[in-house]
Amino acid sequence: MSSGSQSTPQATISVGVRDLAIGVDIGGTFTDCIVAFDDGRIVTAKTPTTPHDRSEGFFSSIERGAEKLAVSLPELLGRCHRMVHGTTTGTNAIVSRDGSTVGLLTTEGHGHATYMMRGSGRTAGLPADELLNISSTYKPQPLVPHTRIIEIPERIDVDGEEIVPLDEQRVREAVAELLDSGCDAIAISFIWSIKNPEHERRTREIVAQLAPGTYVCNGADLVRSVGEYERTTTAIMNAYIGPLMLRYIDAIQKGAEKRGYDRGVLFAQCGGGAISAEEARLAPIRTVQSGPVAGIVASSYLAGKIGTPNVLAADMGGTTFDVSAIRNGEPLERSSSIFQRLELALPMFDVESIGAGGGSIAWLDSSGRLNVGPKSAGADPGPACYGRGDQPTVTDADVVLGILDPGCFLHGRMKVDAERSETVIQRLADQLGLGLYETAAGIVRIVDSRMADLIRRMSVMRGFDPRKFCCFAFGGGGPVHAAAVAREAGLRQVIVPLPWAAALWSAFGAATADVVHVYQHPENIHLPADGSEVNRIFSELGRRALRQLREQGFADEDIVLVRRLRMKYAMQVHDVDVAVRDTKIDSDQMAVIEQDFVETYEELFGKGSGHREGGIEITGFNLRAIGRTAKPEISAQANELEMLEPNDTRKVYWAEHSGFVDTPVCTLEDDQGIVPLEGPCLIQLPDTVIVVRPGQRAFMDDYGNILIDIQT
Amino acid sequence: MRINSSSTPDGIIRNSEVDRKTLPGGDWDGKTYSYIPSPDLKIDPGLRLHVEFDEALDPVTYQVLRSRFWNMNLDHSDTVKRVSGSPVIVYTEDFNTSLLTENGDTVLCGPSIQYFTGYGDLVVKWTLENRSTNPGIGDGDVFVQNDPYIGTAHQMDVELYAPVFWEGRLFCWIFSNCHVGDIGGLNPGSFCPEAADIFAEPLAMPPMKLVEHGQVRQDVFEMIVRQSRTPANLTLQLRSQIAGLRATKARMIELLEEHGARVIKGAMRRIIKDCSQAVGDRLRAIPDGEWVEAIYMGALGPDDRSIHRLVTRVVKNGDRMTFYNEGTDPQFQAASGTYGSWRSALMCAAGTMLAYDQMYCPAGVIDHMSLVPTPGTLNCAVHPAAVTTLSATIVSVYLASQVLSKMVLTGPEAIRRVANATGGVALPGWWVASGTDRNGRFVADVTADQVMGSIGAFPYRDGVDTGGAWWWPRSTAGNAEDWESSVPFLYLYRREQKGSGGAGRWRGGNGVEVGFVAHKTNVLNARVISVDPGVVTTIGLAGGSPGHPGNFLTVSDTKVWEEFSQGRIPGNRDEVEAQLGRLQRVSPKGALSLTGGDIWVVENSAGGGFGDPLLREPERVLGDVREDRIHASQSRQYYGVVIGANGEVDEQGTADLRARMRGDRLAAATPAVKTARLPSSAFALKRYFLTESVGVASGTDALLWTCANCHELLAATTENYRDYLGCIEVRPHDIDPVMYADSRDFCDDDLVMRQYVCTSCGHLVATDICRAQDAPLNDMKIFSLPKGAVPIDQDESR
What we know:
heterodimer, A: 9-stranded mixed beta sheet, 6-stranded mixed beta sheet, 18 helices, 37 strands, disordered N terminus, B: alpha+beta, 5-stranded mixed beta sheet, 27% helix
């Protein structure tokens, strides 16, 4: 086989067989495309993102892929059995606050839930060390103002019983009022609709009658967990991006059809995996954050392939450092998350972030101390060396230290001004009374140590030992800083995954995604229980899941149903997911489930941390239905690569040596790998550089990943 | 001893927090009188302390270590949360963790509850002085204590702390303080409002070893757990704290191995030094002077019908603040707080205002504080006063923030920004819900709606509606659905209470109101643990009105279930009264048994306003009306803003109304007590901005007060400016019966609001809440002009 890089295997294209998947991920600057052949060959393409109409960039990136393969676009699409898109269209609309005009219909007496934010809105999503600066804390601007929230007389109780009938007349009046106030989307979210969705359903019917063109969504259709604030916020956010996402999804679908792709485009979702366009239309909110999540999917897939079950995936971009954990091969999930300081109840992969990236600004506080981040110069003005800003950043420090080669930004297409980096860091050095290089090394050490602190915190809170995890480093800054961060956090090994794909990691994740549907059902069952209710609920969820996946063309042997119960000690707050191994549950199996819960709880929260005397209860059901897709067979290929020795040197400042050292540099082209290298050395890739620190050792595994053994 | 000196040059605290020569009472050793440490602790010489450190620290290593300590402390919090799993710890974050030097100076605290931040140093220093000989302090030990007279708010806040030894010497301490729930006493949950003294409350345990040489002492452990009605919960809680200490200690040892003891201690001392320096710099930028605040509480015990006064005064000279509680009423039953609680309240407020960017370093704050306690008072009680209800403790937090707000308001722009009127949980009121739920289980829970609180107004922006409590930054009140899952009630409504924020140039944040019926239970018990909301605790700043202090209300045997079946839900207080009947007030010590159609309404405290409401921009008032933040009627009543038929501000109408309201103020005000005798050269004086209430003028020997609005001269700054202002004295309830409940319902003393107005222009200079018989507050003295003050006629920023 050919290598996994950008080769041109046009000779192997043949008509009539569907043997490739396409993954496209749209970022702020670039649109990334991966064409992944089932046999493991991979072709990458990058084109500029087209903010005025992102679907343009979407198709240009695929066209670019076809060009690289030297085939026509229809030919490429004809061979494609799956096209998965990770989109930021919804995310961007929320961040830039240019979504729809949403109205909310909610239960009488509870119209302020999204304002009150359970009392934690002022501080939600802020770094802990900023909370005492009270006069600088605000609640986020709500997506729906008071004036477009209408309370409807109706009430369901905790058991799903109707306490107050739905006032349909009031619903009609309310819809008219919302339309009058210019709403083009309506969110409906009633208290306890998860236990009895009838009032929401009926309200939706009325909205559909009165305002047939208006986007409408129900809380209980999107979220099946207790908590009206997060559910209502999710419904609002869904409505906020609904109309524009419908237009976008249509543009992608129609564009694909027009170009000859006759299968539906799938969309990456925040809970991992892909959903159909129909599902994305029903719940566009699920596409939010799907890009980073697709990166985790890719990591999880690779981790499985190379037999590394415990991974901390570290993505360092310009502004943030994001860490997610894969334990025993499974990405950790969370049932709610904070997005733009608003809390959403969507099952999502668990990602922790801090403001630390290449653009993080180095500054002195009122006590004259050197700090790095969380403020970032971002991409614009960007680091001082980009020529627009004059704030010293981590990237400037890396340039000053010789770690980043000014000629190697963005495949060498971007010229940066190293002198400018020196000027701004010298300014800081003068204030600190330190030398230029000491200051630059100090900036790097401080940002590295902040990232290491996050990794440790991520581990402690989730009850695992970082020493048993290896670090996957990707994003522009990941490979640059990972070796130092990992050393500081006590990790033993860094893996820069598939260097030729690392820069398009989310697109790779999209291309390798399974189709995933998550079914949730809230139900409180106190143990001991005989299992009949558990059976009944899982059977019902399972039937729905099978029907849906079969309709999407999956054969039964490609369908996997993962059943999990959410369980807790009655007097304690931590919910944990407990896998249910058997399809039929009786009392004996319930005892096994109970024991599994106790063990899982102790594993996560410490020995003796469960209050068993208070009782154990099931709080919810979760069925993850997976339609397994064909994936590129990543296989041992390093033996087909040309293994390079370092082919250059440059002067790099190493804090370990307190000075500059002539450092070997190995510049990798396609189809090239490295021989084992001793640090200090640099491995130059088109988009980034892998830093191997003094005392560390780098080598390539059989799959073409670059591994760094950390000396701790 | 080095009183009145500048901040520590090396991070070693040498300033004594009290002047022992003038300290009243007997020994302040934690027995009858609360413990007060000296800078020089009496420690058994057999206990070797690690004291030396590197003063010259490389700045990068310092920052790396500072971040490391901070994150270690967060890890400590996470471990406590993880193992405990208790809703009080995980959701409401009623705990805190900290790291202290070998001699008990608190290097940093976590971001959880902030009024715990002034206890750790007291407790560790007491332990060093009293336990270093017998039973000794050794490697692998963990101490436990909950004695309020040594240093905790009430007995339910249990402290566990561990010494860290390095090379045979005591290097530092790791500390946690957690609200553990029930630990005995008269009532489930351990709040004992009816306790006459501490002997009727949960056991107060002075420091003892819970873990010795790494082994848990089962005798001690069981003795503690035996006190609780919920022993399994308490067991877990103690285990979580032990786990947190162990993990953090292990991490500290790793750091010591990596960096060496002198560097680690150097970073700790440098954190204290930096914080102290920052606090000192800010203090020096504020003019020297004296500021006073008083807050009142009513109905402190089950049979109490009095209104009690709490006072805090601060005198600031250079970079040093001296606090007095003189003028505070005598200690009273379980509403009292100890010296430690008063001190911790002051440290919490001073830390927030003057060291908000220093990662919560209490030692750097106490370095600038002296305290002059008057013992036997509500906020400096002596043993055996009971303390579990926390009433005086929580009010002391707001008292501290009020008096320090008044102080910082006289400072430069960057410093005065942090001033903040009361809000949040300024009414120390909780209620416990209990009953048998629909699964036949008995449940009892302290409800948390009031945690949603509110933030009072700032000098340049509005407060935050339901913005929580500033001293409790990471707490959450949970969802209505969460509460309905666990307690047998149904919310009629749970909303921001419209118009509840205090009026002002900047409006206080609105609070939260909730209404309930019992649901799927035979009876829902509601037990209130509060003080009288009719005695307003939610005061404003610079003339701003108090926020709604809260209320507890009920109406019995209504037809609410018939209303439900007809499709009607009363969605707020007005609708309850319109549909179901008039609400009656419930005593702050009341206990109700709710069944069927009984309605239970709880209103929680809102934020105080800032400045004269007639100066609020009319467009903001209109925005509040449009956004449903205030009632339309309030726009005229409080703000003098007329909204025309077109829904826009009627500018002429507003100007006319405001002029009339100022005239009405002057007509209603009793004349000034004194008339100014001003120097003949007064016209030539330069006038300076000081606060939104009063300015100062200089040019003669004496500084003079001026009205901040019209700059008219009032009096020499040696005098009480209130004596030179007109005064409108009125019962708050008579201004607005919904906003301010009638204090006469549960108290015999007469509570009044005094609004002081400039007799020249009608500007509202100050709004005080006090008993009718009290002398006017004299809340500000200025000893010097603000640094770098620019006369108003040359000050372009004004």
